[in-house]
Amino acid sequence: MSTTKAAVPGKASTTKKNSFPADIPEDILLKAYQLMCTARRMSDLYDEHRDICSKYVHSTSRGHEAIQLAIGLQLTGRDYASLYYRDESILLGIGMQPYELMLQLLARKDDPFSGGRTYYAHPSLDRDGFPKIPHQSSATGMQGIPATGMAQGLQYLEDMELIEKEKGLVFCSFGDGSITEGEVSEAFQMAVLKNMPILYVVQDNDWGISATGKEMRAMNAYEFAAGFKGMKRYQVDGADFMASYRTIKEAMNYVRDRKGPAIVHATCPLLGHHTSGVRKEWYRGDDDLKAHEAQDPIPVYEKALRQMGVSTARLKKLREAAEKVVESDYQYAVDAPEPDPSEFDTHIFAPTPIVEEKGNRHPEGGEKVVMVDAALHAVDEILKKHPEALLYGQDVGGTLGGVFREAATLAQKYGDTRVFNTPIQEAYIVGSTAGMSAVGTKPIVEIQFADYIWPGINQLVEELSKSCYLSMGKFPVQSLIRVPTGAYGGGGPYHSGSVESALLAIRGIKVVYPSNAADMKGLFKAAFYDPNPVVMLEHKGLYWSKVPGTAEAKTIEPDSDYVIPLGKGRMHLEAAEGSQSRVLVVTYGMGVYWATAAAKNFEGRISVLDLRTLHPVDWDLIAEKVSTHNRVLVLTEEQKMNSFAESLAGQIGQECFEHLDAPVRVMGSASLPAVPLNVHLESQMLPNAEKVASELEWLLSY
C-alpha cells in the first residue's frame, strides 16, 4: 500500500463557472471532501463488519471530519503532533492510508504505529515528510503534558541555536471532556509561562461517554482558557470545513511566528458511537441524535461545494473513489498477518550504550567527596559536555540550587534557560520529559522529595514507561528523574518516605539506588546515557555522611569518564572463605551501612551485596553468592509487607532453594502508614544495626 499523500481523482482545471475562495486552494477543498467521504465510509464499514472490526475497541472521527481535516491538511513534516483517540481524519489528512489505519484497527503485525500492540488511532509515527507523532496514552487529557514538553524542548533547541528556527510547531488535540483534568491545567500554565510554540485544539461534541457537557463543566474550553494569561484564543464551528481551515491557518501562523501558545475551541457533532464498545443508542435519545445529525459536516460541505460550482457528478466521482479505496484496503487488512507471538516481549527497553564499567573509580590523587557533591559534579560534567541536556524541577534554580543544594551554582554557570525552576507541578516535571526526549533534548529533572512523586505517577506509568514498547522502539523516553528518598532523623511523614516498591511495580522504567559517592557518579552518568526512563533514588541520609555509621558513603571521586552499567551489583563486604556458616545480606541504600555495622559482631561470617540497581536487578550476582552462603537476609528501609524486598526473597527461595540451609529472611521498617516526626518514634520504626544483628544471629543459629 502507498504511504504518499493521495491525489484527488477527477481533478480538472478551474473554469469560469467555479468560484473557489482565493485563500483555500482548489485541490485542498476537493481533497478535504474526498477524505471526508473516506472517513465516513470507514466508519460505516466498521459497523457493517462489526463481528470483525469490534474485536478490539475503537473510535472513529464521524462528525469531527471537518475540523480534523482542517488540521491534518496543514500540518507539515517539521511539526510535532499529539493526537486524541478520535483523530483518524487528522491521520488521513497528513497522508496516512486507510489500509494502514485498518492494520491498527485489527491489531495486525504491520500496523505502522505499534505492531498490533495498541488501540486504533493511537499513533506513533516517525516518517520522513510527516509530522512526528510520539507515542502517547489513551489521551484523556494526559497527552497535554508530553505535548507541552515537546514545545518546551523545541523552544530550548531553537534558543540554544542547536536547530534552525524552521517555524515548526507542536499540535495537541483534546476532546472537550478532558479539559477538566488537572494535568491539562499544568500544561496550559507552563505553555503561557514560557510562551511556548504550541497549538491546542479542543473538539467539543458536548459528550464525555454518557455524561453531557452540562454535567461535566461550568464553562467551555474557550472560556476556561481565558484564565491563562498569554493564551491566544479562537472559536470556530468545527463542522464547517472552510471556517475551520481558516481558523486553524490563522492559529498555526500565530504559533509559527513564535507569538506564543494558542487554543482553538471547535464545536462539532458526535455522529458515531463513543467507542465500538459503548454504542450511541445505549445512552443517547432520539432528539439528541437528530440534533447532531443535522450538523453533519459532509452534507453541509457538499452544499457549499455545489454553490462554488462543483458538479454533482464530480462530487460523486470523488465519493466513489474514496469508497473504492476503503473497501479494497479493508480486504487487504483483513488478510494481513497477525503479529508473531514470539516477539511479544521485544522493545521493553531500548539498548543502552553503557554495558561495562569504564573510567577510573580511584584516580591517583583524587579527593574524597560526599554523595551530594558527586551528583552535583556529575550534572556539571554532563551539562558542560552535552548542550542538549538541561536540568529542571522545584527550587533547583539559581536562588537556592535545590533544597539539598544538590544543584548549587549550576544555574549561575549555565543560565536559567538550562537550569530552571518549575511550578509545583510534579506531573509536568515527570511527563514533560517524554516530550523533551521526543524532540531530541536530554532532560534531568528532580522531584523534591519521594513523598511528592505521587502526582507524577500517572505520567510515569502511562506516558514514559509504555512508550518504547507500544511504539515498537521508535520512541523510547530518555529521562533521568532524581528523587531524594529515605528517613534521616526527624524528616517526618512527608519528607522521609521510601517508594521503591511502588516504582518497581511499573514496567518499562529502570530504578537506581546508589549508596556511596563513587557509585552515585558512575550510575548517574550511565543513567543519563541510557535511552530509557531512569529513576535515581538518592538517600538524603547519605548525602553528607552525617548520619552515624555512614562515613564510607564518602569516597574518592571517580574521573569524568567513570560509568557503571545499570543492573550490576557490587560486593560491599565479603565474608571470609571457609567459614562453616555464612550469611549473605542483600540490600541497598542505608541498608548497606546497617548491615556493615551489624557484621562487626560476626567477624568473617557476613557478606553484604549492594544491589545498586533495583531494576534491572543483578540476579546473576545474587544467585552466585546465595550458592556459596546458604543463608540470606534481604534488608530494606521500606515497610517490608508487600515490598520489593519480600518479592526478591520469594524469588531467591524459589530459584535457589537447593542451596539454602535456612529460610530467606526479610527485614524492613514496621508497617506504618507514614514515618513519624519524633526521632524516637522514627527510630523505633526503622531498622538499625542492632536489629539487623539480631536477624543475623537467628540465621546463623538456625
TrEMBL record:
It holds the Pfam family Transketolase_C. Keywords: Oxidoreductase, Thiamine pyrophosphate. Its cofactor is thiamine diphosphate. Residues 369-545 form the Transketolase-like pyrimidine-binding domain. GO terms for biological process: branched-chain amino acid catabolic process; response to nutrient. Its EC number is 1.2.4.4. Gene3D superfamilies: 3.40.50.920, 3.40.50.970. One of its GO terms (molecular function) is branched-chain 2-oxo acid dehydrogenase activity. E1 component of the 2-oxoglutarate dehydrogenase (OGDH) complex which catalyzes the decarboxylation of 2-oxoglutarate, the first step in the conversion of 2-oxoglutarate to succinyl-CoA and CO(2). This is 3-methyl-2-oxobutanoate dehydrogenase (2-methylpropanoyl-transferring). It comes from Fulvivirga sedimenti.
